[in-house]
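Give me structure tokens for this 92-residue protein.
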Amino acid sequence: AIAVSGTTIYVGGDFTLATNSPINGGNTVARSRLAAIDANTGAVLPWNPAVDNNSVLALLVNGTDIYVGGNFTAVNGGTVRNRLCSFNTSSG
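Here you go.
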């Protein structure tokens, strides 16, 4: 799943790692099925909410909120959220 807000690209799926672009070192950082990427540089941004199990299938950015849908049942270390939740785009 992909959503764009300004120069930030939000991605969701069934991944646990994200890789910076080569100009940003090409290093891999841990991300739990959600990540934010700077559209200008390809850098993985510090935004790091976690979907605890199963995949993210849909994203929608609305102002300062991002709505996430998928097959998950918990977020951020165990908060129960059955298939739908929202995160703040700045704090996660």
